Amino acid sequence: MSNKIQLDLTPKEAHDKINSLAANERLIKRSIDARRRGNIRVLLTLESGVDSGEVVDSGFMARDVSDCPSAVIVGSGPAGLFAALALIEKGIKPIILERGKNVRERKKDVASINRGGEVDPDSNYCFGEGGAGTYSDGKLYTRSKKRGDNSRILNILHSHGADASVLWEAHPHIGTDKLPNVIEAIRQTIEKCGAEVRFGSRVTELLIKNKKVVGVKLLNDESIESRAVIIATGHSARDFYEMLHQKEVELEAKNFAVGVRVEHHQELIDKIQYKAERGDFLPPAAYSLVTQAKGRGVYSFCMCPGGFIVPAATATGECVVNGMSPSGRNNRFANSGIVTEVRSEDLEDYKKHFGVLAGLQFQAQLESMAHTQAGRNGNQAPAQRLYDFVNGKHSNSLLETSYHPGIEASDLHHWLPRFVGDSLREGFRAFNNKMQGFLTNEAQVIGVESRTSSPVRVPRDPQTMMHTVIEGLFPAGEGAGYAGGILSSAIDGMLAAEKLSEFLNS
Ligand SMILES: Cc1cc2nc3c(=O)[nH]c(=O)nc-3n(C[C@H](O)[C@H](O)[C@H](O)COP(=O)(O)OP(=O)(O)OC[C@H]3O[C@@H](n4cnc5c(N)ncnc54)[C@H](O)[C@@H]3O)c2cc1C
User: How far is CA 106 from CA 122, 184, 316, 348, in A?
Assistant: First the structure.
């Protein structure tokens, strides 16, 4: 019989314990308590009395679906891939249509963007095999506890090559150096089961008859029939949402967030968070900040310890930043999005011209403005020292950065929309009260962080997860407005697939 033990240890003791687990012990959770100055504790939860030969089961039930009825999935991000696994378990053959390239080909396009090359609108940091999560930090946690079975997703990721620590870290992550192989392995599992994964297959039209889905059309004019389609296109597929709008598929505007990415030296963040040198046995420190400023929420988003800021635009003429980290989180810099809410009432002018797509247009114009400020020169991004930004001063010089395409001094305090800039500046002041030393001119902001979440939602019935009007259409993941991040998108994809199977079998 197994039982659980909790240990409260110093970082070194915890490190030693993890590396000398007895054959009948298994680590279930590790978390760090850094609240007490000079007395950081590491909390381990162990299960003892387990069978030493016990292998963690991925929980995925593979079966041959090559001759089974099929359903189309648009997009191979976390929502699309995990939807495919769930369809296979239900005896349905997924046909995944992905506009981008496989991870290996995509890697070359991402490298070219970092060297200042043109952005391929089908293959970039957001589009291609694995979606926006492939070249990311691979943080695997979600603030929501309601969404379903996180551990099922973590087990599948682990059985496809993610480190075992994803099963026990309180805040697990995979790392951008490991993610492509994990994604590729999941795709191979899907293909081995007889499903189809087609790259270079941009869906340009959803085919609808009498308010029922009948298939999709690709860029090359090929049509694929299907009476059930999961759309898992992510938050950057503006052309896809414009197409849905033109076809009068009902969409809803939703609140979202925009801002900047802030970059500090990791050493400074370690000192602030651990209140001491990090030493050899603790991971690079992270932070999570939230405050109210000028009547709206300001918060940190996708914090990447030991990471890089990356150019995440999906078209030439846009400047968009995001962040990623390698598995060791061993870069010298720490970065995080710092963003503020954009509400419907902020966009009255946009709504007059663009209706439900107002948020998409606002995002696009912000990205174009950032590009005009600096990005014309080979994907460079506009930047300003943090203290200067908060105090409305031009930066005469900039700091070293992890952002490969390079940065150019720009007065972000001047050209960011006023409600965004003012909230962020007040937010940074408040964050300095929570993390003293955070607001410094030895840090800088780089713009713009505009793709935090989708500004539209594709409405669906909460029970059937099917579109409220179009039969057979299953919106899923972040782009459809029902998830934020890798884990919640994967869970949403699986749930949508289960509902699709009920629909096909009804
Ligand atoms: C640089 C970066 C770092 C990130 N880091 C993290 C992190 O550490 N942790 C975390 O939880 N989240 C992170 N995110 C966010 C996370 O990647 C997304 O929340 C998640 O990938 C959303 O999953 P999804 O499947 O809904 O959509 P996506 O991952 O966006 O996938 C959508 C897919 O659909 C395809 N597609 C779009 N339009 C079409 C079309 N018309 N036809 C065919 N295919 C189409 C796209 O090419 C893409 O592959 C990061 C994002 C970026 C860009």
Answer: 9, 12, 17, 38
Give how far the C-alpha of residue 355 lies from the chain's centroid of Cα atoms, to the nearest Å: 27
Q: How far is the CA of 323 from the centre of ligand 1 (A)?
A: 13
CATH number belonging to domain 3-48: 3.30.70
For residues 64 and 36, the answer to whether their CB atoms sit within 8 Å is: no
Fold for domain 70-252+454-505? FAD/NAD(P)-binding domain (3.50.50)
CA pair distance 88, 501, nearest whole angstrom: 10
Q: Does the global pTM surpass 0.85?
A: yes
CB 340 within 8 A of CB 297: yes
**Tell me: the pLDDT tens digits for 154-196?**
999 999 999 999 999 988 999 999 999 999 999 999 999 999 9
Task: Compute, in angstroms, the gap from residue 396 CA to the centroid of ligand 1.
Answer: 36
Question: In 3-state terms, what secondary structure has residue 291?
Answer: strand
| 278-326: pLDDT as tens digits | 889 999 999 999 999 989 999 999 999 999 999 999 999 999 999 999 9
- In the chain, domain spans: 3-48, 70-252+454-505, 255-449
Mutate to test the pocket of ligand 1, among 489, 491, 494, 495 (most ligand atoms within 8 A of CB): 489
Q: How far is CA 18 from CA 1, 15, 90, 417, in A?
A: 22, 5, 38, 49
Ligand 1 pocket test, candidate residues 203, 233, 301, 488, most atoms within 8 A of CB: 233
How far away, in angstroms, is 329 Cα from ligand 1 center? 21
Residue 182 CA to residue 82 CA, distance in Å, equals 13
